[in-house]
Amino acid sequence: MRAVPKPRTPVVAMVGGGQLARMTHQAAVALGQSLRVLAAAPDESAARVSPDVVIGSHTDLEDLRRVAAGATVLTFDHEHVPTELLEKLVAEGVNVAPPPEALVHAQDKLVMRRRLEALGAAVPRYAEIRSVDELDAFARRIAGPVVVKAIRGGYDGRGVRMARDPSHAREIATSFLADGVPVMAEEQVDLRRELSALVARSPFGQGAAWPVVETVQRDGICVQVIAPAPELDGDVASAAQRLALRLAAELGVVGVLAVELFETTGGDLLVNELAMRPHNSGHWTMDGARTSQFEQHLRAVLDYPLGDTDAIAPITVMANVIGAPHEPAMSVDERLHHLFGRMPDARVHLYGKAERPGRKVGHVNFLGSDATELAELRDRAEMAAHWLSHGQWTDGWDPHG
After folding, report:
1. CA distance 401 to 379
2. Residue 208: beta bridge partners?
3. CA-based diameter of the chain, in Å?
4. Those residues with Cβ within 8 angstroms of residue 341's Cβ, 6 or more apart along the chain or in another chain
């Protein structure tokens, strides 16, 4: 039997074939590599561009073994791989980054809350909910409105329900519990805005932090990111970066870590969520930072020295392109043609995904030379994203006029 030649470059395998894997593959190409991906189907976003695709399920141990075979490191485009399967891979000698004992803090909201609290990180008041009576007791204790969350599996607002009143909270919890979904409750925080502190950490222990950004949510989905977060006190921004770097070290993260934060009306920062992979709040780095989050994730999991995270423009605005209620008759190609004709400075990143209502199908970045341009940049980014998803200009502009 002919010997299999040893790869000349490291092989990075990524579980998940979505847009994060697709953009990580783009970064791998620049490093002379290609990304091996475990995709559920050959038409998934990353499977369309990577030459090394394993079709299978992230919940099947044999499929995970196939994608990990011969790879230098196994990493993730989502956090939904069962912890017990990752532990088996580690026991078999697979280099998993981040390791399962770290990743569980991005998979299980209750485990995360308890660990962060033990580490002295500020979090919203919370409680595990095993019955409606426990929910009622928690609501009485905080004397305010609650959020009911599925402990595992939620993203983009899924599995997170804001209760209007105690009766609605009971209704939500009863529904979750009846379906066998483990539940927790948190206080609804009096928010000024949401922030994200994005960092990376290597196995060697090197850390790097990008500027803290503001994220704008609509219906539980991030629609816009502003980098850096406007009017954020420098000391507060530094504290957020230090917190994210400390959590990466304490939890043993390898790769990119996004620490999603609530900034309260009183000026405090509370940790909301953790993500241990490239993250939507870091898409601006593809055009607005010296090292993108996707290249940095590869550097980190391969234990290369980390890249410079400085912004290359005073302000960057990212807007997500989110599928419209009805797919436009105009082709994506024609929409791109008209966008570039009107906004030649738009930096467009499309994911090769079928357009469906509410689905993230791309994003667009705009760079500004002065923070005074922020309002205009935000308007242009929102307009561009809406045009790409709906095929209509919100200001009524006629491309054929």
Report:
1. 22
2. 200
3. 71
4. 399
330-373 pLDDT, tens digit each: 999 999 999 999 999 999 999 999 999 999 999 999 999 998 99
pTM equals 0.94
DSSP strand E in 27-121: where? 35-39, 52-55, 73-76
On the 0-12 / 13-18 / 19+ scale of CB atoms within 10 A, 87 is: middle
Yes or no: say if 364 and 207 are a contact pair by the CB < 8 Å rule.
Answer: no
CA pair distance 153, 108, nearest whole angstrom:
8
> What is the C-alpha to C-alpha distance for residues 220 and 149, in angstroms, rounded to an integer?
13
Specify whether the CB–CB gap between 110 and 182 falls below 8 A.
yes
Quick one: which of 229, 357, 349 has its CA closest to 292? 349
- The verdict on whether omega for the bond into residue 344 sits within 30 degrees of 0, i.e. cis, is no
Residue found by looking up tokens 């939500």 in the block: 172
CA distance linking residue 223 with residue 216, whole number of Å: 6
Within 10 angstroms of residue 22's Cβ, the number of other Cβ atoms is 26
> Quick check: 2 pLDDT over 70?
no
Consecutive H or E run containing 277: none
**Measured between alpha carbons, how far is 378 from 389 in angstroms, rounded to an integer?**
17
